[in-house]
Amino acid sequence: MSLFKKFPFKDKPSTVAITCAHILDEKNPILYVFHDADDGCWQFLCGKEHNIEDSRVISLQQIYEIDKSVKKIANLEYGKCAYRKDKNSEWNIQ
Ligand SMILES: [Zn+2]
Fold first, then answer.
1. Cα separation values, 5 from 2, 9, 75, 88, Å
2. In a domain, 36, yes or no
3. Which domain holds residue 63?
4. What does R_g of the chain's alpha carbons equal in angstroms?
5. Do the domain assignments include residue 92?
6. Which of 5, 35, 81, 84 has its CA 20 to 30 A from that of 44?
7. How far is the CA of 66 from the centre of ligand 1 (A)?
């Protein structure tokens, strides 16, 4: 399927990703991306304070649909974090 060929992540589109209610429900921009070194889990977060009720489980495909600019950090290595000042800034890798 062409959809999957274009998918920028090495992981499958159905891979579980964690995000927050601010991004999913309130349409805040994604400003922080973590690729966990232990379990390979992806987290896509805004810059706000978070507690457990704010977390939402979705898929990499859904994140990509919310913001296509995550393709620029799709090869983020395990244990790394990508961040940016705002939606129009370039990603920094830490
Ligand atoms: Zn948030």
1. 5, 10, 15, 26
2. yes
3. 2-86
4. 12
5. no
6. 5
7. 14
